């Protein structure tokens, strides 16, 4: 029974496009490897990487000269680099990050067959390339996992104590839980994110559509509950499994998160000290559940259920300072210092209001 269920879970997990959406070509003049049938860009490198399991995977690296952070993107099912190419280049541009994406073993022009263990090795190879070839540091890397890609993303994030941040896009609690409403983890399950997410020590942003018929939104909500360092999640009303990038809120929320992470000093013990608060919650976030203290708590009390939670000592002290009028002025001197506001970079949405940010304290 276990072997049968495990096989079913594996079949659900992997649907590489057949045939692949692209081929590899070589520029005759520059000798540069390229992806076919997409606009060629000077700032994009196409690479072949060897994994520790003996497969050769294809990766692409998008350079952004103004970037301080690097996004390592593990894509979802039924997709390969040919289909993700335009999204990757657009995200690099608008989020002002370097971005590496890669095809799992058996996807696109990568060799081998897809499996849980192969995807772990695939992501490790891409991560190693970022460190060795491009000089990226662990504390400047954000792991991004979409759907099945949340599996290798959470697995690696749980083993990187100085990782800067994690973004989970339509994530799964586990492979088996997508198919059956099981309440416990079985040995034959795959991508046991529900057991690994509490081991992730960096800030986590979760994005999920409320009308997702492939991976129910409850997966994202449960994982968010278990995060150590939460960032304001994005529950997209009416969003399904494959269209979240089409919502204006998607890019806006990612930008807000990246800006906050950029301004958050990274400490050697893996904890984050402060974060900037951006704009107020939008209507698409109104499905948020009660949870442990979230890193997106506002300075001023709001009606959000997140604010009703009992907070950590540093927040408790802040609330007490509001009650005592003779301490209020001293408290505000250290808290009410607005940072220098940058202009909104939300160009595709033609610039919303500039982002107001206030420093907050995290205790890891």
UniProtKB/TrEMBL annotation:
This is Serine aminopeptidase S33 domain-containing protein. Residues 269-281 have a biased composition (Polar residues). It comes from the Eukaryota. Signal peptide: none annotated. It comes from Nelumbo nucifera. Residues 269-364 are annotated as: Disordered. It holds the Pfam family Hydrolase_4. Residues 70-175 form the Serine aminopeptidase S33 domain. Residues 284-364 have a biased composition (Basic and acidic residues). InterPro entries: AB_hydrolase_fold (IPR029058), Hydrolase_4 (IPR022742). Gene3D superfamilies: alpha/beta hydrolase.
């Amino acid at each position: 029974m276990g072997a049968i269920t495990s096989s079913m879970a594996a079949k659900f997990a992997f649907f590489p496009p057949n045939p692949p959406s692209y081929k590899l070509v070589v520029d005759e003049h520059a000798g540069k490897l390229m992806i076919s049938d997409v606009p060629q860009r000077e700032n994009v490198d196409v690479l072949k990487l060897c994994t520790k399991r003996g497969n050769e995977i294809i990766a692409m690296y998008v350079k952004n000269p103004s970037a301080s952070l690097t996004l390592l993107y593990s894509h979802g099912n039924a997709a390969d680099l040919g289909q993700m190419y335009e999204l990757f280049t657009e995200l690099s541009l608008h989020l002002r990050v370097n971005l590496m994406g890669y095809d799992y073993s058996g996807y696109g022009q990568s060799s081998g067959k897809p499996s849980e263990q192969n995807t772990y090795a695939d992501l490790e190879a891409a991560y190693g390339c970022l460190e060795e070839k491009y000089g990226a540091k662990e504390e400047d890397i954000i792991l991004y996992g979409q759907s099945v890609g949340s599996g290798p993303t959470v697995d690696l994030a749980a083993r990187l104590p100085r990782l800067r941040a994690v973004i989970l896009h339509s994530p799964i609690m586990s492979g088996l839980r997508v198919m059956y409403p099981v309440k416990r983890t079985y040995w034959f399950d795959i991508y046991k994110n529900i057991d690994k997410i509490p081991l992730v020590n960096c800030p986590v942003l979760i994005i999920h559509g409320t009308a997702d018929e492939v991976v129910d939104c409850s997966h994202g909500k449960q994982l968010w509950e278990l995060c150590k360092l939460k960032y304001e999640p994005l529950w997209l009303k009416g969003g399904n499994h494959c269209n979240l990038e089409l919502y204006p809120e998607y890019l806006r929320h990612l930008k807000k998160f990246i800006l906050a992470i950029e301004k958050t000093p990274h400490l050697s013990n893996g904890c984050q000290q402060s974060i900037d608060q951006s704009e107020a919650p939008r209507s698409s976030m109104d499905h948020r559940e009660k949870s442990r203290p979230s890193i997106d708590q506002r300075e001023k009390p709001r009606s959000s259920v997140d604010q009703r939670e009992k907070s950590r000592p540093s927040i408790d002290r802040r609330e007490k300072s509001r009650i005592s009028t003779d301490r209020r002025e001293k408290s505000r001197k250290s808290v009410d210092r607005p940072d220098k506001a940058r202009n909104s970079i939300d160009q595709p949405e033609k610039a919303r209001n500039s982002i107001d940010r206030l420093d907050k304290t995290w205790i890891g």
